[in-house]
Amino acid sequence: MAGRVALVDTGGANIASLDFALRRLGHETVLTHDAEAIRAARHVIMPGVGAASDAMARLKAHGLEAVIPTLEQPVLGICLGMQLLFDGSDEGDVECLGLLPGRARRFADDPSFPVPQMGWNELERVGDHPLLRGVHDGDFAYFIHSYALPVTDCTLAAATYGMAFSAVVGRGNFLGTQFHPERSGAVGARILGNFLRL
Fold first, then answer.
1. Global confidence as pTM
2. Active-site position among 79, 91, 96, 154
3. Catalytic residue status for 95
4. Which residues contact 66 (CB under 8 A, 6 or more apart)?
5. pLDDT confidence of 12, banded at 50, 70, 90?
6. Which phi and psi angles does 79 have, rounded to 5°?
7. What SS3 state is found at 73?
8. Euclidean distance between CA atoms 28 and 37, whole angstroms
9. What is the CA radius of gyration of the chain?
């Protein structure tokens, strides 16, 4: 298991495309909810598509809500996986892992900005981090989400969809992208590659 990239089994549906993207970058992966396998992995990715309450219930069922905060290797949350790194989410009024400060809130109802946001959106860098090496203001990434985190001091890149929100976050070894890098073309591949080099 050592040397592999562990994909935490949060019950999401986007595993195949993420697994393919990582293997295309030359990295072996394993989908698991086993605590020891996750601890032994070189990098850990927490993907997620679905509801925050369901994903947290799945983590708790396997004792991972206690394991993930203790990890010392690079950890990347993707989409819902990123939101799970924060204090909580209004989606199901659930408390999350509390590794980053903030709470995911639903986009406001606005006919000009249908919810969920589905499609390509521009990134605006607001911090400097090796995860964003080679990523520039105006680069596009693919989003699909109804809930978002505000821009805070752990935001590395923002996007705007009726409001500014966190698109890339990081604190210590815990990082996240609100968009799906595995569906974001060359920009997403660059970010995944940067993460795997951390």
1. 0.96
2. 79
3. no
4. none
5. low
6. 55, -115
7. coil
8. 13
9. 15
- Give the residue extent of every domain in the chain: 5-197
CA distance 58 to 56: 5
Distance CA 76, CA 47 (A): 8
Secondary structure class of 76 (helix, strand, coil):
strand
Average model confidence (pLDDT) across the chain: 95
Whole-number pLDDT of residue 190 = 98
- pLDDT, tens only, 130-152: 999 999 999 999 999 999 999 99
Q: What is the pLDDT of residue 1?
A: 43
Q: Which CATH superfamily is domain 5-197 in?
A: Class I glutamine amidotransferase (GATase) domain (3.40.50.880)
CA dist., res. 185 & res. 142, Å (int): 9
pLDDT tens digits for range 56-103: 999 999 999 999 999 999 999 999 999 999 999 999 999 999 999 999
Contact indicator for 141, 187 with CB cutoff of 8 Å:
yes
Cα 92 → chain centroid = 19
91 included as an active-site residue: no
Is the distance from CB of 34 to CB of 67 less than 8 angstroms?
Answer: no
Is 28 annotated as catalytic?
no
- d(CA 84, CA 185) in angstroms, rounded, equals 24
